[in-house]
TrEMBL record:
Record-linked Gene3D superfamilies: Copper homeostasis (CutC) domain (3.20.20.380)
Gene transcribed to yield this protein: cutC
Family designation: Belongs to the CutC family.
Name by which UniProt lists this protein: PF03932 family protein CutC
Keywords from the UniProt entry: Cytoplasm
InterPro entries: CutC-like, CutC-like_dom_sf
GO cellular component, one term: cytoplasm
Pfam families (UniProt xref): CutC
GO molecular function: copper ion binding
Protein location: Cytoplasm
Principal subcellular localisation of the protein: cytoplasm
Native organism: Paenibacillus herberti
Amino acid sequence: MKLEIIATRPEDALAAERGGADRIELVTGMLEGGLTPSIGLIEAVADAVAIPVHVMVRPHSLSFRYDRAELELMRADIRAIRRTRAAGIVLGVLTPDGRVDEVALETLLGEAEHLNVTFHRAFDEAADLFAALDTLTRYPQINRILTSGGQPSALEAVPMLAKLVHASSGSGITILAGSGLKAPGLDEFIRATGVDEVHAGSAVRVEGHPLRPVMPEKVMELRHILDGIRTPGNEG
């Protein structure tokens, strides 16, 4: 079971690592759903921790549709990220009618050599989640999809997430469940969905507030729950 924690500063990343996180998603603008952090911040966080750091590539929070100038900016950001110790990027692009924007995606993936790629919660705004999954499986560079199953909270989408886990089996894409997940009920959620990666942000922060620091003990609480779970996908 893998645990990914959102960080917005080096102290967050260090606290997450101390608590047993497997990976960092590095963002700025948490209240806007995550935006691209500065190169200085990326370098500081990637140098501070030993666990992988995946960096958000999202120039604004207006939509998941980008014009040519915005895509060029994203390409430049990915090239800069590639020169740091960051292990991956997190991105998502949609067409106006809610399909994965393959032209934009291929443009961005062309800059992402040697980087892990997560398709973020733009996925949850797709018109058809299974069609979006099918499209993304055609891109070997994409390792995982961060999703709440099309709902504001992953807890509201247990049946859908279970279907997505089943549909993605053998595709090379891992379903990373995120949004609204906390320690209470996490074991039941994982057993019901079959996910083997979990993403947390506010749940591991002081008073559950997205702008407060990460607490290692809250990360550790999630880590202990995950370590005690066996799902159909990881028994043995």
